[in-house]
Amino acid sequence: MSMDYPRRQIRWIRHAVQAAVLAICGWAGWQFYHFVLHFANPSAPPGIRPASVEGFLPIGGFMATKYFIFTGIVEPIHPAGFVIFVGALLTAVFARKSFCSWICPVGSLSEYAWRLGRRITGRVWRLPKWADYSLMSPKYIIMGLFFFAIGIAMTPTMILMFFIQDYYKVVDVRMLLFFLDPSTLALSVVVVLTLLSFFIPNFWCRYLCPYGALLGLFALAGPLKISRNTEHCTDCKACSRACPSGIAVAEKDRVISPECTGCLSCVNSCPTKGALDIGTKKRVIAPQYFAVVVLLAFFGAVGLGMATDNWNSKMPKEEYARIVPRLATPDMKKQPIIPPDLQHP
Ligand code: SF4
Ligand code: SF4
Known about the structure:
Number of strands: 3
Helix content: 55-70%
Order of helices and strands: HHHHHHHHHHHHEHHEEHHHH
Structural class: mainly alpha
Shape: globular
Largest sheet: 3 strands, antiparallel
Strand order of the largest sheet: 1-2-3
Radius of gyration: 22 Å
Bound molecules: iron/sulfur cluster
Number of helices: 18
């Protein structure tokens, strides 16, 4: 029995992708804060607006996707939100729900939390099956409500009317302010979810995230799935123990579950070459090629968005100057950042 090199390598490749995306998100958040600060307080120097912050606007991305399907037009205010939403759907179709375990910063932070919790407590906590299944329903209910409201009830004209509202124009700024100045209720919810995430793997993703629920359903249609070769399998159950989604991998020939995030922890932990792989019904692929599929599907969509000029917002800066001062927190508005006598030497 030997653990072949690509299997061991894959977890580090995934961790590297997660860390790189988190670093990009941190950089984008910092830059966007300074971009907004300039409009809240003109004595602050102007900043750049990283389009990638629109990745935090999946509902807008969903609306923009419907609008694109019906009109062929990419909405120009938050086009990166549309591109990232489509990129996430593409990763789901081609590479399981891999957006959650490879790219999503919330998924990465959730994973760090339960890994730390496991290190401290020495175990992974699992809810009883009845509680697990009951708690999984809210994300599908929330997703269903969004699907009904946007996918069915809203016409393209209604979506367009929403796009031209001030609310939507600066929905990215509203998101930033939510993080900078959360209400007591929002903060309490975040604290509770964070605490739960230390004990129960990926609590938010598993039970509450409607985005992940949607991606999981898209992933069911994908050709690549985890496959167990019963001729080579020794029934050691290392794969089942390693699965953060609680899937009994060792009892399946093929993992057909909307909860599989394509993290490949099961493949990585299987000690028997040829017993557990990812692939189509007819052919397995090496784990590192799966990584290539994940990156190509997501960053290919991003690259296409950039190449076709559907990445950076076309909204004039004057609109931010008009709307942001009404929204900015008192802290952002107060005191000149650069003393006036230094601004015009
Ligand atoms: S079945 Fe394997 S790839 Fe899917 S979530 Fe579980 S460990 Fe990850
Ligand atoms: S880890 Fe590999 S050998 Fe062990 S039960 Fe799973 S597929 Fe079989």
